[in-house]
Inverse folding.
């Protein structure tokens, strides 16, 4: 049976600019920041870099997965309002798990293509630290002697109850399917860390980042919101997870499952962070604004849940087919490193050139704040495409439950 692939092209949709916060290790300096406040910070940074007044935004699309505060329902609205977007402009939140940041950009493209807005503010934000300790069955009360049960939302969400496997086990399934060894996965992780460190030292990651400081977000007539960093921390301006990670150090780590290939060192890091972009129509850009990339096409594909990590492969094939291109036309490819074996499986399935893949490091080194990841990958791919003078780039990710998503970008300055 031929898989159903959900894809479309965009004729005149442009990513004007974008920005992200640093990605900070779990329970670190961003541990007390809500996804809403991180999203506001990234959104304000994107607007400032784009040189577009917030008053010209016609739609706000956010992405966020786990609630990081009791008022999480208000996240899309507050990201817009506290970024200066007019009160009349609507806002919505989207959820496609690890593809949520991509989905926010796809929805922005649809808003522009269908004439709902000329300029859209898109944002992905996630606090892994503030995932709640939750109970879902206590609303009706407690029976005599029954356990009073609370569970870790973050930990429990790693399991897919349909196939009865964890996200790590889906990567182990791919390792078996593609004959991927522990050494191969560790070698890939070493490269991710080294590339991220090189990019950090060269200032390439700093180009993406808006520094975070203690700050108050005012909204006339309404209560202010705040960013409050830990005591003695005045500014956070760099990702914290990249670190020297030699092969011998990674090889000493225990696998998550006995005999498996995945460890804490070759899986995506838990981090907190947000990323945002301003997306506009070509007609609007005719007013003199320069763009970062053209959003050419988007595709989503379904795969068996027990091998969900292979999802980027059919999604990438679908977006290429939709645009009439081949992998040879692509200069830069980003695949989210949910797990090392998962990314290597996609590499082997597609026959990718590793020199084009995750060239500034991936989520093993930088971290994977779920709904922010797709936005980061897209902006990183667009910037690197410009640096290299290439024409096309792809950003993609696997998605828990058995999906993959990919966006195709074009460098407007390419010959």
């Amino acid at each position: 049976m031929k898989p159903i692939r959900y894809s479309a092209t965009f004729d005149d949709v442009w990513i004007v600019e974008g920005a992200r916060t640093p990605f900070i290790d779990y329970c670190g300096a961003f541990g007390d920041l809500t996804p809403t406040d991180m999203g506001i910070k990234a959104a304000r940074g994107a607007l400032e870099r784009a040189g577009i007044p917030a008053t010209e935004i016609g739609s706000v699309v956010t992405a966020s997965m786990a609630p990081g505060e009791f008022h999480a329902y208000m996240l899309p609205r507050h990201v817009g309002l506290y970024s200066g977007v007019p009160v009349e402009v609507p806002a919505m939140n989207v959820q496609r798990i690890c593809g949520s940041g991509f989905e926010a950009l796809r929805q922005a493209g649809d808003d522009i293509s269908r004439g709902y807005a000329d300029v859209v503010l898109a944002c992905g934000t996630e606090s892994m630290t503030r995932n709640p300790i939750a109970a879902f069955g206590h609303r009706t009360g407690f029976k005599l002697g029954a356990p009073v049960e609370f569970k870790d939302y973050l930990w429990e969400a790693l399991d897919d109850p349909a196939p009865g496997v964890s996200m790590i086990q889906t990567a182990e399934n791919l390792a078996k399917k593609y004959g991927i060894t522990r050494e191969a996965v560790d070698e890939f992780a070493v490269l991710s860390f080294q590339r991220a460190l090189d990019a950090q030292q060269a200032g390439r990651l700093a180009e993406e980042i808006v520094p975070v400081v203690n700050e108050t977000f005012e909204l006339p007539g309404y209560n202010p919101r705040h960013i409050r960093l830990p005591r003695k921390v005045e500014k956070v301006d760099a990702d914290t997870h990249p670190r020297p990670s030699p092969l011998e150090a990674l090889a000493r780590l225990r696998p998550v499952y006995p005999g498996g290939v995945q460890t804490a060192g070759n899986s995506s890091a838990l981090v907190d962070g947000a990323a945002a972009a301003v997306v506009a129509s070509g007609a609007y850009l005719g007013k003199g604004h320069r763009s970062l990339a053209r959003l050419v096409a988007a595709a989503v594909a379904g795969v068996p849940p027990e091998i969900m990590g292979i999802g980027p492969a059919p999604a990438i094939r679908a977006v290429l087919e939709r645009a009439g291109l081949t992998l040879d036309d692509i200069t830069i490819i980003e695949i989210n490193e949910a797990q090392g074996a998962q990314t290597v499986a996609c590499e082997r399935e597609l026959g990718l050139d590793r020199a084009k893949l995750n060239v500034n490091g991936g989520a093993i080194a930088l971290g994977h704040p779920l709904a922010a990841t797709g936005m980061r990958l897209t902006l990183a791919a667009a910037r690197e495409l410009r640096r290299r003078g290439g024409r096309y780039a792809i950003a993609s990710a696997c998605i828990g439950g058995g999906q993959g998503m990919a966006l195709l970008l074009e460098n407007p300055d390419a010959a």
User: Anything to note?
Assistant: The radius of gyration is 20 Å. The domain at 11-131+206-239+267-285 is CATH 3.40.47.10 (Peroxisomal Thiolase; Chain A, domain 1). The longest strand covers residues 271-281. Residues 59 and 128 are 27 Å apart (CA to CA).
